[in-house]
Amino acid sequence: MAQKRALLDLSKEELAELLAAWGQPRYRLNQIWRWLYVSMVSEIDQMRNLPAALRTQLGGQFVVTSVSPLRRQRSADGHTEKVLLELADGQAVETVLMDYDGRRTVCVSSQVGCALHCAFCATGLGGWNRNLSAGEIVEQVLYFARLSRGGSRTAPTERTAPTERTAPTERTAPAAPAQPITHVVYMGMGEPFLNYEAVRQSIAILNDPEGFALGVRRVTVSTAGIVPGIERLGREGLPIGLAVSLHAPTDELRNRLVPVNRKYPLAQLIAACQAYIERTHRRVTFEYALIDGVNDAPAHADALARLLGGMLCHVNLIPVNPVADLPYLPSPQERVVAFEGRLRERGINATLRVSRGADIQAGCGQLRGSPRECETLVSA
Ligand code: SAH
Q1: Ligand 1 centroid vs 129 CA: distance in angstroms?
Q2: Could you tell me if the CB of 94 is within 6 A of ligand 1?
Q3: What value, to the nearest 5°, has the Cα angle with vertex 367 and ends 362 and 371?
Q4: Which residues are 100's β-sheet partners?
Q5: Protein residue with its CA nearest to atom 11 in ligand 1
Q6: DSSP 3-state assignment of 111?
Q7: Closest CA to 143 of 81, 225, 222, 52
Q8: Does residue 260's CB lie within 6 angstroms of at least one atom of ligand 1?
Q9: Which of 29, 44, 123, 287 has the greatest CB tally within 10 Å of its CB?
Q10: Mean of pLDDT values over 174-191
Q11: Which candidate, 288, 373, 350, 232, places its Cα nearest to that of 118?
């Protein structure tokens, strides 16, 4: 049997064209869109205000999603969850939900594996496998959105079908907020800017005001420093958050830690960030993992302050998360605090990120997407 496409992979324009080609009235587009991104159904048969013939026609070619959960884990403090999602071709990616300070942030993967081989990151260890589709990215968000609103993955049979005038969520989710996910960060497996189109389309889908309605200011794309990607995102002219995995203040050190620096050295990277700030008026975040004895000396802080001085930016410091098979250790607490203090004294906005979910290997740089390490915990 030929594989059916996932409806989540269609942009709104593509879905509109399809429905037009099938001779459907215009309003069907919004009906289906709302089922997908407001009700967040996982089966075409749940779209109960569609004529049976249209549901059959859709079902002949499409499924809602081609992704299914294999394993779900919760951190000991209960605030971080990680899910391993199986894709249609049997590959898998990991997605993390962080629930802190009134924010519910989904950290999505953009590729299966990663080609960039940053020295301290688990994802690169297995190499790059393939890009995710837009739908596979969106589905990671919907997975946690469904759980967060207290819904289930299957059809809630008691639900009333929405009409043209009644929003599905008004009837279907009485106790939970209409939009249970407040932020999305592209900080999971892979390099988003090496999968630009799918990432961009997934943001457009999530942002659509008639659907999931997540503001682009609540979206952050993190890059290891793919300069053309930063430039391209800047040209979109949208205030999407940009984070850059810096980790070193000199080319010599960064070439070793983040090897893509050889292709896009610091001068180019910082210039691209500056242009991004000018276009979007958004503060750029620089991620800096503090690694014991590698990039955490006072001289590194000074060099970093010189590099970033005067920029509308923010440095996010995080003691490196240990990764099995890699030799790097986190800087001791006093060096971390001293590093932060030194940056601040030099006028750089810096904060310490508390590492979340390291006990379930859900911390930065710990996602591998392999089903190897733990027990099954997929339960509602
Ligand atoms: N490829 C993109 C998206 C991944 S984001 C990027 O590099 O930005 C994941 C973040 O975790 C990046 O900032 C990455 O550099 C960081 N990271 C990787 N391994 C880490 C580790 N062991 N400890 C802490 N942070 C790590």
Answers
A1: 18
A2: no
A3: 100
A4: 103
A5: 364
A6: strand
A7: 81
A8: no
A9: 123
A10: 80
A11: 288
Stated pTM of the model: 0.91
Beta strand ranges found along the chain (DSSP E): 5-6, 62-63, 68-74, 80-86, 92-100, 103-107, 111-113, 128-131, 183-186, 219-223, 241-245, 284-290, 313-319, 350-352
Q: What is the pLDDT of residues 200-253, one digit of tens each?
A: 999 999 999 999 999 999 999 999 999 999 999 999 999 999 999 999 999 999
- For residue 185, which atom of ligand 1 is closest to its CA? 5
For the chain, give the number of residues. Answer: 380
CA 362 to each of CA 108, 130, 197, 321: distance values in angstroms, whole numbers, following the listed order: 12, 21, 26, 10
Report the C-alpha gap between 32 and 213 in whole angstroms. 15
- Model confidence at 137: pLDDT above 90: yes
Distance of CA 323 from the midpoint of ligand 1 (Å): 12
Question: Which pLDDT does position 371 carry in this prediction?
Answer: 55
Residue 354 has what pLDDT? 75
Phi/psi of residue 117, each to 5°?
Answer: 55, 50
Q: Is the pLDDT score of 343 beyond 60?
A: yes
Pairing of strands 111-113, 103-107: unpaired
Q: Which residue has the tokens 């800017």?
A: 193
User: How much is the pLDDT for 13?
Assistant: 98
